[in-house]
Write a structure and sequence with these properties.
- It is a single chain.
- The chain is mainly alpha-helical and 91 residues long.
- 87% of the residues lie in helices and 0% in strands.
- It contains three helices and no strands.
- It is rod-shaped, with a radius of gyration of 35 Å.
Length: 91
């Protein structure tokens, strides 16, 4: 879309009068608002995708923490090693 210059507006004012200038300015503003609404919709979709990705990362982190806790518990309760097993039985 081309920008309206002051000369274009004055030409419309001379040729068609003040109502034509108002109509053109309204039309330009309407197009600007449509572009703004499209940008807002795209931004909303982007935010929703980021929220979904964040939820997935949080779930993955929770699963990793659970797995690490199980590994830590298995290391602490290592009953498969004969030396540790004897020490545990001695207690």
């Amino acid at each position: 879309m081309t920008a309206l210059t002051l000369g274009d507006i004055l030409g419309l004012l001379k040729a068609f009068g003040f109502p034509a200038v108002i109509l053109v300015l309204w039309w330009v503003d309407s197009k600007r608002m449509q572009r703004l609404e499209r940008i807002i919709d795209e931004y909303k979709g982007l935010c929703e995708r980021y929220a979904k990705t964040t939820d997935e990362f949080l779930q993955m982190m929770a699963l990793n923490i659970q797995s690490l806790s199980r590994i830590e518990q298995k290391i602490e309760d290592n009953r498969f090693c004969p030396v540790v097993r004897r020490e545990m039985e001695a207690r």
